Fold Orc1-like AAA ATPase domain-containing protein.
Amino acid sequence: MENAFAPGFSSLERAALGRQAADSAVEDDDWIPRTEQATINGIIDGTIQGHYYLVTGEKGTGKTSMILKAMSRISGDGIAMLEAHGDFEIFRIRLGKALDYEFHEDYIGGLFSFKGPRDTTPLLDIERAFNQMEKIALKRQQEVGKPLVLIINGTHFLRDDDDGNHLLELLQQRAELWATSKLVTIVFNSDEHWTTERLLRQATRLQVISVRDIEKKTAIESVKNFRAKAFHEDVSTQILEQVYSKIGGRLRFLSHVAKSPDMLKTCDSICQKERQWLLDQCWILGKEMDPGAENHQDICASAMIMAKALIAKEKAIMEDKDYDGRLPQLPLHEARELVTNAEFLKALDHINIVTIDSHSMVQADSVAMQNAFRTVCSQPGFDEHLQETFDRLDELESLARTRELTVKDLWGNKGFRAVVESKKGENKDMVVSIQGFSSEPEDG
């Protein structure tokens, strides 16, 4: 296991670093300054100790890139990294590979039908690996005076159920203990808000690093300087303002646009993709909705409610003289009140329609998505179509709550008498009588 933390990179780390190099083949993304990079450098090289960290933010804001850059600075010394997965067995294998640890040993229990180590649960194997890792950390602390660093990338890929919470609880317990003793610093990296909520419940030494979009002034200056350096082009402020109004300060969008020959055309392409993603995932079906689509359409209708609310909020903040192009936000509790179900917002966060930051504020996932909201909600007949969807959902919900009672064999004078009462036999408030009648015509 000591080899896992020696200078150099594992195959997984080399693959991640190679991916970063491929993404920045034209020019390294250092042309966009990041205020969080210095903090992450200190965490990864071990100079900042005594805490564990959750690096959170929207997809494409540069979280993983900053971590990989920090690893490259020190050649991976004292660092292990793995990608999270919802399946315990796969997570166990990836952890073993990252720590250079095998979850088996020689035993003779099979001769007597005893269970061997492979028959234990994945959580027990992970706990055993951490026990061994702790010994390595103690030795390193005595020799170097710095903690080991374990990076768990993509924490949101863990399942948000009882099993996933048990694994996250195990990881957090170790993170709290090791942060107190300064043996190991665990860094969680996540795109979704549910991991923040889950970790904050039991956190005492957790620090959340929120990685957001680049501010308008910094983004415009960075793109202008890059175009001058790479293309020898003096881009006008008007064009740069248009670029920012279309894609905002999202790092992956800025990097793509700045390196393209026609920036405005690339911006339009990005906005079109975001708009199509919104329609593919969340378009409402109106009054012809099939009953089987009710659950999915609840989420789609919630997306449109949030879109209209964020557009209204945007109009309000644009009246401010100090408006700097920031996205409109709603407090999480107000957003939940609008959509009537907290699970709907979690689903929208999962598919990158909205995002929830570490301060429990809800906004569009990106400036391009906010533009998609504006385009979709301004379509002719949209409000009527949305209302028809609501009416159809109400109708389906009413049908689901309606029960049909069929009574047979009531020929002649036969009948039934039903009394509605409480469980204890009290409060007989309602009596329903059903009396049959003869199908034969009466005489004379």
User: Anything to note?
Assistant: Residues 294-317 form the longest helix (24 residues). The chain has 16 helices and ten strands. The radius of gyration is 29 Å. Residues 21-27 have pLDDT under 50 and may be disordered.
